[in-house]
Amino acid sequence: MASSLTCAGIVWAFLSFLCAATSCVGFFMPYWLLGSQLEKSVSFGTFRRCSYPVRDESRQTTVMVEQCGRYASFQAIPSAEWRICTVVTGLGCGLLLLVALTALMGCCVSELISRTVGRVAGGIQFLGGKCSCKEGMGV
Fold it and tell me: Model-level pTM?
């Protein structure tokens, strides 16, 4: 297998893949905020939630559903800001994954990544990282 990457490029490809995978796992995991409600431990993230309250109309009370799952619809995400965070973070993870997979393919295919393609990929990766990190830091 011939590669169009230098040793530094191969290290970049593998680190890019590890960072993209970590970002995607963090995006899909519901452990961004932890707390308690109705004496039960609860957690949620932009995309999923665990142990959430639901109104039981038959008993006219609120019960805790003790399982993890995604929101029923995009509109079920608690606020407009949280929806924006979900879209921006998801877009960032997608960009990071796209660059990482392209870089890994560059390890196996000769002449796939030129200097110009590497620079463009680095810019896209910077943008993806900025989208993923900016929302996580509350900036």
Answer: 0.74
